[in-house]
């Protein structure tokens, strides 16, 4: 009888859940998720308030500025949680928390931006489809990133934080409905494409932080209706889109110039995308 029992397939034994012990990096990740949620709440409450007051149309400048600033703060948290985890240590839940937070802040939140913007255009339901494409692209690229082997110096596809910022940039530029929808779909495609982007390490990471701070400054000037605020906003948005579109060509040229066997390898565990 004992031999028969051992031969039969055994049901998996229940495993004890790991203790909930968050590291410092995890609190940055949770801050990322919270900022994404607050950005969506800011947009939703502003739109509901305008509809209740019978004032349809684009949202007030200060409401948009507050939501975008929250997402920029989320991007800063995402940029540094991985660095903090590598220096001070992280928890076993760090990678899972990071992916979940990124879906909120860089998937759902920018998609909601597109939905709100699309309601003021003449493009019909096309912006809704573009918003869904952004959300699904972020989910797919985060899943693909989790399956990648460590050691690469490049992201495959546009990283989701940069993709979210690019989507919001398109919304802030407020192009015609069909043109804006096409631009958002292009960003969604870049996130799931095979186009390579360098990982933010060293000077690149601090350069991205400087760009984010510059974006906050431009938004602040635009929000308080400074004399050159609108020009600064449009110039900053155009520069960001130019970087997103031209960096892959720079990577392609540098990789052709340096043989892959001679290029220094930097081992970076694929635990966090930021």
From TrEMBL:
PROSITE patterns per UniProt: CDP_ALCOHOL_P_TRANSF
Coiled-coil intervals: none
Name of the protein described by the UniProt record: CDP-diacylglycerol--serine O-phosphatidyltransferase
Catalytic reaction(s) noted: a CDP-1,2-diacyl-sn-glycerol + L-serine = a 1,2-diacyl-sn-glycero-3-phospho-L-serine + CMP + H(+)
Any Pfam family hit: CDP-OH_P_transf
Membrane topology note: Multi-pass membrane protein
Similarity comment text for this entry: Belongs to the CDP-alcohol phosphatidyltransferase class-I family.
Keyword Transferase on entry: yes
Entry keyword set: Lipid biosynthesis, Lipid metabolism, Membrane, Phospholipid biosynthesis, Phospholipid metabolism, Transferase, Transmembrane, Transmembrane helix
GO molecular function, one term: CDP-diacylglycerol-serine O-phosphatidyltransferase activity
Protein location: Endomembrane system; Membrane
Transmembrane portions of the chain: 20-44, 64-80, 100-118, 124-142, 154-172, 178-197, 204-224, 230-253
E.C. code: 2.7.8.8
């Amino acid at each position: 009888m004992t031999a028969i029992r051992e031969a039969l397939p055994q049901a998996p034994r229940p495993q004890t859940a790991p203790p909930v012990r968050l590291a410092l990096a995890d609190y940055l990740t949770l801050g990322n998720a919270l900022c994404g949620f607050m950005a969506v709440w800011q947009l939703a409450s502003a739109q509901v308030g305008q509809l209740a007051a019978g004032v349809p149309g684009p949202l007030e400048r200060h409401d948009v500025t507050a939501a975008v600033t929250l997402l920029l703060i989320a991007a800063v948290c995402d940029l540094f949680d991985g660095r903090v985890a590598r220096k001070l240590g992280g928890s076993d839940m760090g990678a899972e928390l990071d992916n979940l937070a990124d879906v909120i802040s860089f998937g759902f939140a920018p998609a909601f931006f597109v939905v709100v913007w699309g309601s003021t255009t003449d493009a019909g339901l096309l912006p809704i489809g573009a918003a869904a494409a952004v959300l699904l692209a972020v989910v797919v690229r985060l899943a693909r990133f989790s399956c990648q082997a460590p050691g690469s110096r490049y992201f495959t596809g546009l990283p989701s934080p940069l993709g979210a910022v690019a989507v919001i940039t398109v919304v802030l530029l407020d192009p015609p409905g069909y043109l804006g929808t096409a631009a958002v779909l292009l960003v969604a495609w870049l996130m799931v494409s095979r186009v390579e982007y360098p990982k933010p390490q060293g000077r690149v990471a601090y350069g991205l932080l400087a760009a984010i701070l510059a974006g906050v400054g431009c938004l602040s000037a635009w929000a308080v209706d400074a004399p050159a605020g609108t020009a600064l906003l449009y110039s900053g948005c155009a520069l960001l889109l130019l970087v997103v579109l031209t960096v892959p060509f720079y990577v392609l040229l540098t990789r052709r110039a340096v043989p892959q066997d001679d290029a220094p390898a930097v081992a970076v565990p694929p635990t966090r995308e930021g």
